Amino acid sequence: MNSAQHQTASPTPTTVQADDAPKLDAHLPSEVGEALDFCRSLISTTPRDTTVDPIDALLYAVLVGDDCEAHLTDPTHQHDDLCGGQDTMALMAKKHAWSTEVVAKLRHLRAAVATVTTTWEQQQH
Ligand SMILES: [Zn+2]
To answer: How many Å lie between the centroid of ligand 1 and the Cα of residue 55?
Structure first.
């Protein structure tokens, strides 16, 4: 590709993309946040012991989180015996034979969900 072709091939959003993007930016995060918050409420208030069933345990780890998240509201937080730090995740990983990769994936997904739900919660106030 010569430079003239490269210049004409530079990405220029079509009218459809340009019109659709603001709608997604304006509405998708709020709706996804509401949906994730709804799912989090379900899994965190079920009378079932969510540590027993492996699917419940995975859903809980992503939607609620097994690690202490006090640092999200208190950047100076230091883990102690009361918060448990990362002890619960370690216990659940052992109980359900989660590999290091699975634990890393769960923490990655939990961080993504927390970002969306925290934004959604802030929008509600
Ligand atoms: Zn802590």
So the answer is: 25
Residue 52: what residue type?
A: V
Determine, yes or no, domain membership for 53: yes
- What residues make up the domain containing 58? 30-124
Distance 27 CA to ligand 1 centre (A): 33
Going by the DSSP 8-state scheme, the letter that residue 9 receives in this structure is T
Q: Are 103 and 87 in contact (CB under 8 A)?
A: no
Q: What is the DSSP letter of 53?
A: S
| Nearest-10 Cα torsion for 42, 86, 74, 115 | -50
Low-confidence ranges of the chain (pLDDT < 50): 1-26
CA distance linking residue 40 with residue 58, whole number of Å: 12
The total number of structural domains that make up the chain? 1
